[in-house]
Amino acid sequence: MTLNNDTRISKGFVAGLLDPRLPADTGIVGPMIDHGFPCAEDDQKPEAANYIPRPRYRAVSAVEGTALALSRECWRSVGGMDLRTFGRYGWGVDLDLALRARDAEFGLYTTEMAYINHFGRGTANNHFGKFRYLIGANSAMERAMRRVHGRKWRKLFPPGTLPQAAPGSPIAYTTHQLEQ
Asked: Origin, by domain of life (predicted)?
């Protein structure tokens, strides 16, 4: 499991990520989030303490690295996180992990039973400086993803998956009810 230190989690957060009603092929699961990958954003963006869980999950093509859980089978199959390639900032490690999990035929899901507020880059901005961090992290991610997945790595994700989605573009996910 990953969880950034600049987050607040909803009640029942861990139970939501480990919900046995999620599909049997679950490799990676993440919570809903106030800002991050569009496929995981909650339209209402409540305070985490006030989030009301909904018995639904979304089939997605990537899970936001701010908070995610991997099944043991997925971890063993894909070899965990590639910290050597994505180490300094960690940006892109979630995208690489998603691609490897998908290639190994694991399902990627965002559960509406868990939610986080992500305050975004507070620690990193203080440590590196705001613009230095943003430029450094983005360029390191771009280089690493190109090295591992090729120059057209962004095309491996449906439109609306990554945070740079154009306003009004469709968001790439499907929603399903959790079985009772």
From this structure: Bacteria
